[in-house]
Design goal:
By secondary structure, this protein is of the alpha/beta class. It has 17 helices and 23 strands. The strands form five sheets. It has a six-stranded parallel sheet with strand order 3-2-1-4-5-6, with helices on both faces.
């Protein structure tokens, strides 16, 4: 496919990097330095200019594009870009926005703004945070197959029961598949075998029925996984913080929100009646102790500033909070946050890039989760007649698929199917598979 990306920031460059090997990618950006950087660092055609300018789009040969992605940091620019593309091309248009009002309008009137698909950065980040809140000990959680399957990533702390076990010893769950292990310090994932040892501080990726994933999480740290999460403190009344609190409230959790600006605090109190609003500085240790933040199951730092979010998360941990999740605007800080003590760092732009990526496969994946480092992916694909798996047992197809592929789960007519070697895959099944980056192109063309 020919893919046009307008905006070469973190989202645009991440998408370009993941697609350049398999597709013809054209990137447009107003910053000449970014354009030059993209030309040398990625196998793409880069054009300098404003994506809302028809002449610039013509220079980028927009009429040849199969997909056009507007991924700048400005909502109005992205909407205008999609509208302009729509007048001169049949490309499938994707717009990234922050303002949920635009998303609501688009959902109520499909095709509004000339946009075929819209992603809201803040909402996607909030959804990711709430999924992690709901699964203690997890670093990342993604639903697949309409919620019948979950992918979860865990870190295995040294000294916990799982550390030192082989995969065969740890695999006590019928409806769960170990699909990848990332040893501490490794730059890519390892496909686990029965005799693979799960070392301390390694990351492990599993795919399975949600109940099985939750049971597995308890084996990593039984104390942390025990009980339901019911006390969540959101530090920072940013849009992401507000949306996180709203989603928590919808799940029956009554969050506490700490917001220093009194006007914003009053606004949040009106919008989320079930939440307790505390108008104070969330980086004040005495306040945190006085409000018993140390008793919270999870503290979520969404202050809109990486420095302040890091400070709030670390202070919450210092006073005794069980877990701390922080929103990180700069992707390069994600590892740093987690190395210094934040349990999970969520980068909204990375989450957005994942959501957009699933529309740009050779054949659209139903869902995609990107596993870092190495850029491996967990894909959900509906099996069609032309698939190498259609009507065949998994063991009979093994030699036709490249190394680096693990089928983690199958759903059939909304029923969970445990994937085993003799499992026959039917047309219409939804297959959830882990695929290493070097195998993505071949796998997506065959499944």
């Amino acid at each position: 496919m020919r893919i046009l990306i307008v905006g070469a920031g973190e989202v645009g460059s991440s998408i370009a990097n993941s697609l350049a090997d398999a597709h013809e990618v054209v990137v447009v950006d107003v910053d000449p330095d970014r354009v030059e950087s993209m030309t040398y660092s990625h196998d793409v055609l880069a054009v300098s200019g404003d994506g809302t300018d028809l002449d610039v789009l013509v220079e980028a040969e927009v009429e040849r594009a199969d997909v056009a992605i507007a991924s700048t940091d400005d909502d109005e620019t992205n909407l205008a870009t999609c509208g302009t593309v729509n007048t001169v091309s049949d490309a499938f248009t994707i717009a990234r926005v922050k303002n949920t009002t635009y998303l609501d309008t688009w959902r109520n009137h499909q095709g509004a703004f000339g946009v075929d698909f819209m992603v809201c950065t803040d909402l996607l980040a909030a959804e990711a945070i709430v999924r992690i809140v709901g699964l203690p000990t997890a670093r990342d959680v993604d639903p697949f197959a309409g919620g019948h399957v979950e992918m979860a990533e865990f870190e295995v702390p040294a000294g916990t029961p799982l550390a030192g076990q082989t995969v065969a010893e740890a695999d006590q769950f019928d409806e769960l598949t170990f699909v990848a292990i990332i040893p501490d310090g490794a730059d890519s994932a390892v496909i686990p075998r029965g005799d693979t040892v799960i070392t301390g501080d390694a990351r492990i990726v599993v795919v399975g029925r949600p109940a099985a994933v939750r049971s597995f999480s308890a084996t990593i740290n039984p104390d942390e996984a025990a009980g339901e999460v019911d006390d969540v403190v959101v530090v920072g009344g940013s849009t992401t913080g507000e949306l996180t609190a709203e989603l928590l409230a919808q799940r029956g959790i009554k969050p506490r929100i700490v917001e220093v600006d009194r006007d914003r605090a009053r606004e949040l109190a009106e919008r989320i009646p079930s939440a307790t609003i505390l108008s104070h500085d969330g980086t004040d240790p005495e306040f945190l102790t006085r409000e018993h933040v140390q008793n919270a199951d999870v503290v979520v730092a969404t202050l809109g500033s990486d420095e302040r979010s890091l400070l709030a998360a670390l202070l919450a941990k210092r006073v005794g909070a069980t877990r701390a999740i922080a929103v990180v605007e700069q992707a390069r800080y994600v590892d740093l946050f987690q190395e210094v003590g934040v349990d999970v760092a969520v980068n909204p732009r990375q989450v957005t890039a994942e959501e957009i990526t699933r529309f740009t496969r050779e054949r659209h994946a139903e869902n995609v989760a990107i596993i870092e480092p190495g850029g491996a992916e967990v894909l959900e694909i509906e099996i069609e007649e032309g698939s190498v798996l259609a009507g065949r047992a998994i063991k009979d197809v093994a030699g036709e698929l490249p190394d680096g592929v693990v089928i983690g789960a199958i759903t059939r007519d909304d029923e969970y199917v445990v994937p085993r070697g003799d499992t026959v895959v039917h047309v219409g099944d939804h297959v959830v598979a882990f695929v290493r980056a070097d195998a993505l192109d071949e796998v997506t063309s065959k499944l």
